[in-house]
Amino acid sequence: MQLVIASGKGGVGKSTVTASLLYLLKDEYRFVAVDADADAPNLDLLLGVERWEEERELIGAKVARINTESCIRCGICQERCPYDCIKVIDGDYVVSELTCEGCNVCGLVCPVPGTITLEEVRSGVVRKTTTRYGFPLISAQLDVGRPNSGKLVTEEKEWAKKLMGELGLEHMIVDSAAGIGCQVIASIGGADLTILVAEPTPASLSDVQRAYKVVQHFRQPAYLIINKADLNPGFTALREWAEAEGIPILGEIPYDRAIPRSMSMLKPFVEAFPDSKAADAMREIAEKVREEILR
Amino acid sequence: MQIAVSGGKGGTGKSTVAINLAIALGEHYDLALADLDVEAPNDHLLLGVELSNEEPVELFMPRFDYSKCTRCRKCAEVCEEHAIITMRDGTPFLMPNLCSGCAACEIVCPVPGAILPGKKLMGHTYLTETPYGFPLVTGKLLEGEERAMPIVSRAKKRAQALGKELLLVDTAAGTSNTVSKALEDSRLIIAVTEPTPLGIHDGELILRLAKLMDIPAMVVVNRSDLGDVGRVREIAERYGAEVIAEIPYSENVIRSYVEGKPIVLSDYPEAGIFREIASRVVEFLGGGE
Ligand code: SF4
Ligand code: SF4
Ligand code: SF4
Ligand code: SF4
C-alpha cells in the first residue's frame, strides 16, 4: 500500500508526526519511507540520518543561454519570454538562470539561429539510506533556483518501488511536500490514501482544505490528524470541516514542548520522550493506523 | 523599491513577520504587501481580511483545428513539457495537465490557424484593502494545478503596478525558482528561520540563494529559545548576513496569530521586536518619513 502524509503547508508538524509514526510502525511492518519535500527535505534529520548510501544526480532541468557574441540585441526574446526571465545587464540580454523555466520560447523567436541554446542542468539529487531503525529512506534535494517540478518526486517513488520489489516490502509511506504544487500532486497521485495533518488555526484549515481538494481530485480516501490540538480551544472549524466532509479523525496530539525538544535531539518524539502526552496520543494514532489502514 | 520576507522552511513564522513588518513599515513608507506564497497564501487570514477584487490568471493552451493541421508533428517535437502526444499518423493531442502555457507549439506551427489560442484557468490574483492603510496583493494557485510560476509572476506584476514607494513581498518556503522569481528585484531579503537543526539547514539554503542572486540578507530568528542561536549567527556570518532580531517562543504571538490581530499593534512586549526590525529595515533602505 502507498500512503501519503500531507498538510497543505509546512510548519504544522507533519514531518515530526511522520517520523514518530514510522518509528511506531517499524517493528510490525516492512516499508520504505519517502521524503517527497525535495525543496526542504527534513525527514532524514528527524530520523538522525548521518550519511547516504547511494546518491543519484538528476539532470533534467533546462535553462536557456544567450550567446552575446551573435546576439543582435533586438529584444524579441525578452518580449516573448512568458515568465520575464530575460534581463538587460550592461547592454547584454541575459537569461536569469534562477527563474528560467526552460520552455525555449526565447530560442524559437530569436531571429539569429544558434544564439539561444537550451542547456540541460542538474535539478538536484535523489538519495537512499537505511535508517538506524532498519527501514530504508529515500529522499531528494532540489538545487537552489531550479523549477520545483514533480520529476524528483516521481524519481524517488520509482526508486522506492524498485526497493520494495528487491527487499519484499509491503508499504510505501510518503511524506509529501508543503503546498499543493507539482511535488504534492506527484506525491498524492498513484497513492492509495492520504493522511492529512493540520492544526486548529484558520491558516492551517485553509491549507489543508486545499490539499484535500487534490486528494479528492485523485479520488482517494483521506484521514486527519489534528496536531497542537489544544493550542486554540475556541477554534472548532477544523473538526467541523472534517466531520462535514466525512474525513475520519485518527487522533489529536496536544501541544507539547517535548516535540520541539525532540527535534533538536534529532529523534522522533515518541522515542525521545516516550512518557510525554504527545507520545501517548501518537501511540493511539498508530494503533488506529494499524487497525483501520494497514490492517 | 522592493524587499522580501522569505524563510527556508514552512511554518517558521514567515507570514507573521511579513504582516507585522508591513504594518510597522507603513509608518515610514507608502507600501503594498504581496503574498506570493501562491500554494498556501495566508497573509489575508493573519490580517483578518477577506480576499477581494479577484482576477483570473489564464494561460495559453493550444487547441487544434484538425481540418487545417497537416500532422507535421512540429508542435509535439518542440514542447519541452511533452504535453503534446501524436498518433501514428501525426495527429496531435494535448495533455492539458502537462501544458505550461508557454505557446512554443503555436510559434512553430507552420499552418496558420491550425493551433488556436485556447485558455485555461490556473488561479487568481486578488487586491484587498486592509484596515492597516496598505493594500494586499495575493496570488492563489488553483487546487490541482501544478504550476506556481505564472501566478507568482502575475501577482507580482499586479503589485508592482500599484506603483507604491515600497513593495514588501512574502515568498513561499524553499528555494525553488518560484521563490527566486518572488525575490527578484529585491533590495533586501529578511530571512526568517528557527534555531533548530531543521531551521538552520533550510535557513542556510535561503542565504545561499540570496548570495547567488546578489541580494543582501538579514536574519530574523523566530522561536529563538528553542535552539542554538549561536549556530544561526555562525551561518549568517558565513553568508555575510546579520541576525537582526530574536523572537522568543511566545503564547502571545500564537494568540494574536489565531485571532487575526497583528501583534505589532498590541501592548505585548513582542510588539517592540517587530518595530525594531522595521527600524533596521528603514535604516538600511534610507529615506522614508
Ligand atoms: S526558456 Fe522560456 S522561461 Fe527561459 S528565458 Fe527562454 S522563454 Fe524565458
Ligand atoms: S532575440 Fe536573439 S538576437 Fe534578439 S535580443 Fe534575444 S538573443 Fe539577442
Ligand atoms: S503551450 Fe507550451 S507546454 Fe503547452 S503544449 Fe504548447 S509547447 Fe507544450
Ligand atoms: S505543428 Fe501545427 S500543423 Fe504541425 S502537427 Fe502541430 S498543429 Fe498540426
Topology:
The complex is a heterodimer of chains A (295) and B (289).
Chain A: E1 2-6, H1 14-25, E2 31-35, H2 43-46, E3 54-66, H3 76-80, E4 86-89, E5 92-95, H4 105-109, E6 116-130, E7 136-142, H5 151-167, E8 171-175, H6 182-188, E9 193-198, H7 202-217, E10 222-226, H8 237-245, E11 249-252, H9 258-265, H10 269-272, H11 277-294
Parallel strand pairs in A: 1-8, 1-9, 2-7, 2-8, 9-10, 10-11
Antiparallel strand pairs in A: 3-6, 4-5, 6-7
Helix pairs in contact in A: 1-11
Chain B: E1 2-7, H1 14-25, E2 31-35, H2 43-47, E3 55-64, H3 74-78, E4 84-86, E5 92-94, H4 104-108, E6 115-129, E7 135-141, H5 149-160, E8 166-173, H6 177-183, E9 186-193, H7 197-213, E10 217-222, H8 229-238, E11 242-247, H9 251-259, H10 270-285
Parallel strand pairs in B: 1-8, 1-9, 2-7, 2-8, 9-10, 10-11
Antiparallel strand pairs in B: 3-6, 4-5, 6-7
Helix pairs in contact in B: 1-10, 5-6, 7-8
Bound molecules: iron/sulfur cluster (4 copies).
Describe this structure in words.
The complex is a heterodimer of chains A (295) and B (289). Chain A is of the alpha/beta class and 295 residues long. Chain A has two domains: 2-49 and 131-293, Rossmann fold (3-Layer(aba) Sandwich), CATH 3.40.50; 60-122, 2-Layer Sandwich (Alpha-Beta Plaits), CATH 3.30.70.20. Chain A is 36% helix and 25% strand. Chain A is built from eleven helices and eleven strands. Chain A has helices spanning 14-25, 43-46, 76-80, 105-109, 151-167, 182-188, 202-217, 237-245, 258-265, 269-272, 277-294; strands at residues 2-6, 31-35, 54-66, 86-89, 92-95, 116-130, 136-142, 171-175, 193-198, 222-226, 249-252. Chain A has a nine-stranded mixed beta sheet, with helices on both faces. A two-stranded antiparallel sheet of chain A has the order 4-5. In chain A, 54% of the residues are buried. Chain B is of the alpha/beta class and 289 residues long. Chain B folds into two domains: 2-56 and 123-285, Rossmann fold (3-Layer(aba) Sandwich), CATH 3.40.50; 58-121, Alpha-Beta Plaits (2-Layer Sandwich), CATH 3.30.70. Chain B has ten helices and eleven strands. In chain B, helix 5 packs parallel to helix 6. In chain B, strand 10 (217-222), helix 8 (229-238) and strand 11 (242-247) form a beta-alpha-beta unit. The model of chain B has no long low-confidence stretch (mean pLDDT 89). The chains are: A alpha/beta (295), B alpha/beta (289). At the A-B interface, helix 4, helix 6, helix 7 and helix 9 of A face helix 4, helix 5, helix 6, helix 7 and helix 9 of B. The structure holds iron/sulfur cluster (4 copies). One iron/sulfur cluster binds at residues 64, 81, 83, 85-86, 95, 100-106 of chain A. Chain A: InterPro entries: 4Fe4S_Fe-S-bd, 4Fe4S_Fe_S_CS, CobQ/CobB/MinD/ParA_Nub-bd_dom, P-loop_NTPase. Chain A: It comes from Thermococcus cleftensis (strain DSM 27260 / KACC 17922 / CL1). Chain A: Pfam families: CbiA (PF01656), Fer4 (PF00037). Chain A: Residues 62-91, 93-121 form the 4Fe-4S ferredoxin-type domain. Chain A: GO terms for molecular function: oxidoreductase activity.
